[in-house]
User: What shape does this take?
Amino acid sequence: MINVDKILENLDEFPTLPTIYSNLLECISNPRSTVNDVAQIISRDQSAALKILKSVNSPLYGVSKKVETIKDAVFHLGFNEIKNLVVALSVVTTFKNIKATKNFSLLEFWKHSVAVGVISKLIGVTCGEKNTENYFLAGVIHDIGKLFFVQFFNEEYDKVIENAFSSKIELSKAEMNYFGVNHIQIGEKIAVKWQLPVVFRSVIKHYQDLDFENGNSMITTSVALADYIADLLELGLRNNGTTFKPNPKIWEVLKLNKGDLLELYPKIIENYNQSIQILIVN
Assistant: This one.
């Protein structure tokens, strides 16, 4: 087992989010900020602005009228939803050149992550949640800690993934056995480093280990189910190729019937395909 303290030292070198995010964070936290202020920050990054317009006009956000300006995009989605979309775009861009391994494909990782984001948001809407602005980003970053291992312990992590696959155990357990820390714990620390709201830290920490005795938030439960569905539909391949069924109580918490998910299938595929094209391919 590698020394845990030595592992955690690498967190200081883990990439931070681009300047656009910190500028947005500062702007949004100012009660005097306007839609114009937020739009101006986004518009300075032409690549991000273009992808945001494409995203806002995709089925994922369900805006009835075509949005043609960043100002209108901010108006329709609101400050927090726009900020979350910027984070999602920034995270994918920041790690686009990370070195893959025999057992880890960055493309498949992002496909899975985006699928979980798309499905999480659709589950939230289907459950009647009025505020689903955090669902997509929560799904996209739920496994962000894996990229830490790929970046700093590339060869070792490849062996850990292979061991999880051959032993048919959760990857987080294989990570713990080898590193003394897993991607869930690392992911939570990354969320703190990036100054993401507590809700995202909570999702990362608990989505694999739901607490049915003390209650789970709807967003965490939605991400947990979305993670399973994405595996089941093979939307991006998980590293160890093993799908673990969620606790049956998850259906009670979300008050969903399995038939509800069958009806969601066309939307899942449509939103997933468009989101992949916007966030990853282009």
In short: The chain is about 65% helix and 0% strand. Residues 210 and 240 are 21 Å apart (CA to CA). The first helix runs from residue 4 to 9.
